[in-house]
Amino acid sequence: MPVPRGRATAALAAALITASCAGGEQVHGRQYPWHTGIVATTFWVGEVLDPDTSDGSQVISTYDSAWQQHYGGCDGVLLDGRCDTEPRTAANGYFPTRMTPRENPFYLDLPFDDLNDPIAFEQRGAVVPWSRDPGYAGRERDESFSYLKNRWVQLTRGDAVCFGQVQDAGPAEYHDARYVFGHDDPRPVNTRFNGAGLDVSPALNGCLGFTHLNGAHDRVDWRFVEESDVPDGPWRRVVTTSPPTLY
Question: Would the N or C end of the chain have less CB density within 10 A of its end CB?
Answer without folding.
Answer: N
